[in-house]
Amino acid sequence: MREPLPGIRQHRAVAAVTVLADRFGRVATDLRVSLTDRCNLRCTYCMPAEGLAWMPQPQQLTDAEVSRLVRIAVEDLGVTEVRFTGGEPLIRRGLVGIVTEAARLNPRPRLSVTTNGIGLDRIAVPLRDAGLDRVNVSLDTLDPARFHTLTRRDRHADVLTGLEAAVAAGLTPVKINTVLMRGVNDDEAPALLQFALDHGYQLRFIEQMPLDAQHQWDRHEMITAQEILAALEPFGLQPDDVSRGTAPAETWLVPGHVDAAGEPARVGVIASVTRPFCGDCDRTRLTADGQIRNCLFATDESDLRKLLRDNASDAEIAAAWRVAMWGKRAGHGIDDPSFLQPARPMSAIGG
User: d(Cα 116, Cα 153) in Å, to the nearest integer?
Assistant: First the structure.
């Protein structure tokens, strides 16, 4: 990686480019937009049973403000992919309208949603018609009773119905995100992969990260990528020749299987902790209250909401966004003894 530019040269470099570049040569082209910190589940690894104090409505960006920032990111800063997240984005009433506005941009970005799948059966077709390209659905277990234990809600059947509705609406490839937890659902890796293969879904296992509201994450209790792959050995996984690029998931081919599009079936592992991919990160994050986070694990933020509400121009907002990304660190630093977990939990940052 390149060393940071010294002193004044940093500011000149920021002003000289229109993309979201940082000091290490990375360029952010993937925007994650959190539309709300609210959620209709209470997953044990995310928040306490009683939930969290939700963001006051006046602090949350309006639909028009979200759409304006997405437009600036795409038209002025080179973003090519936008993913809407939460909390749970499907409970944002203006979601379809926000997607509609994003799909009208030129150049048109690729548009996706990460969701728990609850209510997706009702909104999958409107989202497709609005211009959404695909969805990621979180599913950590195939056992309804275990789902209830994990999420503190009896909505397992609704998630499965949402997955089916996404396929029927053409929001493909439909990807499943799964977090394995020791002594909870770590025995389900083979069954979850078989379920995905049988239905044409693309499965992604995600190492549990230190982003829980309770700050109880323990690295020694985390299921690692190595353990996940060991559990999948009966499938005879083969290396994937397709370049990973800036994607967070390492993928493997599953011999003898194809996905819903007739392509070779793949399974992925997002090993943010044990196999960090910070050097290739291309993401920038916008919280529901208009803060820019240049890293999932950042401990500081840059306020675009104030600029919006102070009638700043597009050029001023874009410049502030570039400065925010210029300060991105080389890596998340989880292995550093000085690492501090972000004050915001995952539900308030977005996936």
Answer: 12
Angle at 70 between CA 67 and CA 71, to 5 degrees: 85
Supply the range of the domain harboring residue 284. Answer: 8-349
In a domain, 12, yes or no: yes
pLDDT tens-digit series, residues 288-300: 999 999 888 777 8
Residue 1 in domain: no
pTM, two decimal places: 0.88
What distance in Å separates the CA atoms of residue 70 and residue 68, rounded to the nearest whole number?
5
**Average pLDDT value for the chain:** 87
Model confidence at 81, pLDDT cuts 50, 70, 90, reads very high
Q: With bands split at pLDDT 50, 70 and 90, how would you rate the model's confidence at 10? A: very low
Give yes or no for a contact between 32 and 83, defined as CB atoms under 8 angstroms apart: yes
Instruction: Return d(Cα 133, Cα 11) in angstroms, integer.
Output: 37
Q: What is the pLDDT of residue 200?
A: 93
The number of distinct structural domains making up the chain is: 1
Q: Which residue in this structure is represented by tokens 């690729």? A: 110
SS3 268: strand
- Count the alpha carbons within 13 Å of 289 in the hemisphere toward its beta carbon: 15
Total Cβ atoms within 10 A of residue 162: 25
Summarize the confidence of residues 91-104 as an average pLDDT: 97
Does 2 fall in a domain? Answer: no
Contact present, 178 and 186 (Cβ < 8 Å): no
Q: Classify 348 in phi/psi space as left (phi over 0), alpha (psi -120 to 50) or beta.
A: alpha
Residue 345 has what pLDDT? Answer: 61
Q: Does a structural domain hold residue 98?
A: yes
Positive/negative CA dihedral, 172, 130, 247, 337: negative
Tell the residue number behind the tokens 């499907």, with chain if given: 90
What does the alpha-carbon distance between residue 108 and residue 80 come to, in Å, rounded to a whole number?
7
User: What CATH number is attached to the domain comprising 79?
Assistant: 3.20.20.70
Stretch 49-54: mean pLDDT, rounded? 68
Is residue 12 within a helix (H) or strand (E), and if so which, with residue range? Answer: helix 8-16
Mean pLDDT of 221-230: 92
